[in-house]
Design brief:
The protein is α+β, with helices and mostly antiparallel strands. It is about 25% helix and about 30% strand.
Length: about 90
């Protein structure tokens, strides 16, 4: 999935294929070789925030792990909360 602004800048639509290039590649005889993979755009999203819509692309965890050669590891996690002011319901504070 890619943001609506990014899709517009690239001129791509759902079903199109894009090439994603990672600067974290492998060392070759001529130096760093960037890693490239084709991804199919399965959806275009609009968060209503230009920075996200213009710069964000999302993929499933397994594809990202394979692309970045992370194995079963992750480098971060994102959460979306309905209400950030809610406290846990356990008896602890």
């Amino acid at each position: 999935m890619i943001g609506s602004e990014l899709a517009a800048m690239l001129g791509v639509f759902t079903g199109d294929t894009i090439n994603v290039i990672s600067p974290m590649g492998e060392i070759g005889p001529l130096g760093m070789l960037p890693k490239m993979k084709q991804f199919r755009v399965v959806a275009v999203f609009d968060m209503g925030m230009f920075e996200y819509d213009a710069n964000l692309a999302l993929t499933d965890l397994k594809s990202a792990q394979e692309f970045f050669k992370y194995g079963d590891a992750v480098s971060g996690i994102g959460l979306k909360l309905k209400d950030v002011t809610l406290r846990p319901r356990s008896g602890r504070t």
